[in-house]
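The following record pairs a protein chain with its ligand, magnesium ion.
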Amino acid sequence: MTFPIMQIKLKRLKMTLKNPFTTSFGTMQEKEFFITEAIDDSGNRGFGESVAFPAPWYTEETVETNNHIMKDFLIKLLQENDIRHPEDVRKIFQPVKRNSMAKAALEGAIWDLYAKRKNITLSEALGGTTAQIDAGISIGIQPSMNDLLQKISHHVNQGYKRIKMKIKPGWDYEMLREVRSHFPDTPIMADANSAYTLEDIDQLKKLDELDLMMIEQPLAHDDIVDHAKLQASIRTPICLDESIHSAEDAQKAIELESCRIINVKIGRVGGITEAKLIHGLCRENNIDIWCGGMLETGVGRAHNIALSTLPQFTLPGDTAGSPLYWKKDIVKPEVTVNNGIITVPDKPGIGYEIDDAALEAFTVNEEVFEM
Ligand code: OSB
Ligand code: MG
């Protein structure tokens, strides 16, 4: 039986983050992105989210490249090929190189639709094994040390299971040492978003004193060789984010010992099916994984939650509650975190209902494709 997808909708949304988010590459507050919708012959609606940003500072993709690739290539491939199962989409998209976030946005809607048609949760459809997941939080670079310490203590009191801070050259060792002195027992980690090179090795070695859970993507966005050299000379585990786009990349990084931990993002790796392959590989090789975030709405957040119920997601991820990001989310109920824990929803598919009025209000453009 083929999967009767009748329509695909691309909705372009504009939303404003409650607080600006600053990384080693700059500050974001306005978010523009796509919500994808796949509709079947009985009117079931599956939803996905494209996580590319307006500018290509994280990886090479942008909102505009997502638009081009989805419209001019990926949707055509979906029109021309039979889909028996959402896992087929990965193969159907293989003629298009990279453009992972564009692929994941469409594949995600199809996974949600599949689970809804079967009347099971997305977590069940993926083989998830837990009913709740641990939530961590990623704090952007703050205007001052005082602001940072206040934010951390607020989130520690809320129960978040680990705190991630963004670092960059000039805002690293001294800042983290100060944080550590105020929070001696809190699990903390640092994310550099590729801001360093091997020339900074002495500065990075100093972080070993601070008992960080890990340092995320210290070196170039496309590197796994220098990261192996760095990992061989520091005790702090390296976690790769930007460098891993596929199970093949993960395999090579594991072989080279470029990292001990992987941050899996559905968008960065081209979809849930690829994320599951990485999960399996890490399970075989005893590599810890966790699910990263891209400042998503509740739709992307719900996908992250479902993925995080797979057994090798042993560390808290970056999926925090909606109210930290949005005045109003586009799902009902919003994603909430209680004492550092997210309860996995038990409704079919992504498990959160779409707030159609909110979705409508944030939509600046919509295109419909007949399948
Ligand atoms: O590197 O993990 C990252 C946000 C945007 C782009 C890249 C990253 C991040 C985060 C925040 O760290 C994750 C989140 O809160 O959604
Ligand atoms: Mg990161």
